[in-house]
Amino acid sequence: MSRIVLFFVFLFIFSATKAQLAEVQANYNSVGDVDFVAYNNTLAPLFLNVDFADLENTTFNEPLPYIKLLEPGFNTLFTLQRHPEAEVPLFNYQIKTFRSNPMSLADLDFPYLIPLAPGETVSVFDVKSLAGFWGSEEPESWNAVGFKARPGQPVFAGRNGIVVEIVGKERSGDPKIWYHTWNNSVTLLQPDGTLICYRNVVDNNKKLKVGEKVFAGQPLGVVAPQTTGLILLIFQHSLDSDKLRFVIPQFVTGENETGLLLSSQKYSVAHPEEIRGLEMSNREKRKYLK
Q1: DSSP letters along 205-223, please?
Q2: Are 222 and 200 in contact (CB under 8 A)?
Q3: Which of 94, 153, 182, 279 is least enclosed, having the fewest CB within 10 Å?
Q4: What pLDDT, on the 0 to 100 scale, is given for residue 45?
Q5: CA dist list (Å): 250 to 24, 34, 158
Q6: Whether 249 contacts 146, CB under 8 Å
C-alpha cells in the first residue's frame, strides 16, 4: 500500500508543477533508505545535476559531480542507504537541469558529414554574427560554420542525434523550454552530449518528431525560403557557468579525407557509408545503410 501512496503523491507533485523541466522526488522506503526518482516533463532527453549540501546518517556513493541523463517521463536515480544502527537519513539538496551534458568531453576529431547532398560542390563562408541566437545577448566567444545554399536545397544530418527542437518561421510556447531563439531551425542532441543547431532549415513535410533518433546522412528538411546560407552551430552548457562552450567540427572533405573547413573554399560533398555507420548498431546499419 505504501508504494501506491508514494506513487500518487509523486503524480500530484508532477501535475502541480508542470512548468518545471524536471522534478526530483525522495521517498523513504521500508528499511529507512531513501530512493530518489525523477520525472522529465519534456519530450526530449535532459541532463540532471543533484548536489547535496548536508548529509546525516548516510553517504552519497555516486561519482561527483552527479550528472544523470533523464529520458522523457519517469527515471530512477539512486538510493541513499541508512548507516547501520543510525536514524533515518537527513539531507538537503539542490537540482539543476541542462539541455546538453555539461561534463562531457566533446569529440573534436569526429568526422561530420557536410549536411548537403552527396555529389554537390559547396562553398563555405564566415559566420559574422550569432544575432538572435539567444535573445539580444550574443556569446563572447563562439564558432559556427556557414554553407552557401539555395532555398529548397535538401539538408542532411551531419551526425547521429536525437531531435530535441523543431522551429518554423515563428516560435510559440513557453520560452523556458526553448533551446535558443532562432527560427527555421532543427536542433539535435548528439551522442557526445553536445547540441547541434541547423539554422535556416524547414521540415515542410513534418516528418521529424521531437524525441526521434536520426542518423548521419538522413534528411532533415530543406533550406528555408529566401535564404542563401545554412549555418551549423555545435555547443554545450557549463556546469557552474551560464556561458556556452562551442565546438569547431571537422568534416568529411572527400571519400578518405577529413579536416577543418576554410572560408571561401569549395568542397565536394561525400557521405561515405563507413562514416555514416560510425555511431550505428549493426541492426541500424542493416536497416539504414542500403
Answers
A1: T----TT-EE-TT-EEEEE
A2: no
A3: 94
A4: 97
A5: 38, 45, 11
A6: no
